[in-house]
Amino acid sequence: MDENAKRLMASLQQDPAKIQALLRSGDGQTLLRMLTERDQGAALQHAAQSAAQGQTEELQRMLSQVMGSREGAALIQRIQKAVQK
Questions:
Q1: Residues near 66 by Cβ (< 8 Å), separated by ≥ 6?
Q2: Per residue in 47-80, pLDDT tens?
Q3: Sequential DSSP letters for the chain
Q4: Which of 10, 13, 47, 70 has the most CB atoms around its CB within 10 Å?
Q5: pTM for the complete prediction?
Q6: What confidence category does residue 81 fall into, taking pLDDT thresholds of 50, 70 and 90?
């Protein structure tokens, strides 16, 4: 995972309100769709549970996979800009 994505994760971990706002946004919904389309969300649910316990590796791996596509990289970039505001 690149440094920008790591900073995004750290920022979101520190502010639950940002997470809620992100999930309600159009880009957040697109990200959720990308993260859940393969297995109806089972992997995301497991990764979120692990992240809640401080183990963010699975979630980081999932975000890296999303960023592997042009659409996913652009999406993460838009989310990073929105979170920084």
A1: 31, 34, 35, 72, 75, 76
A2: 989 988 888 889 888 988 898 999 999 998 898 8
A3: --HHHHHHHHHHHH-HHHHHHHHHSHHHHHHHHHHHTTTTTHHHHHHHHHHHTT--HHHHHHHHHHHTSHHHHHHHHHHHHHHH-
A4: 47
A5: 0.79
A6: confident
**CA-CA distance, 8 to 82, in Å (whole number)?**
10
CA 57, CA 46: separation in Å to the nearest integer? 11
Structure tokens at 72: 């996913």
Q: What's at 4, amino acid-wise?
A: N
Residue 22 · residue 84 · CB < 8 Å? no
What pLDDT score was predicted for residue 1? 55
Tokens linked to 53: 């316990």
d(CA 33, CA 82): 19
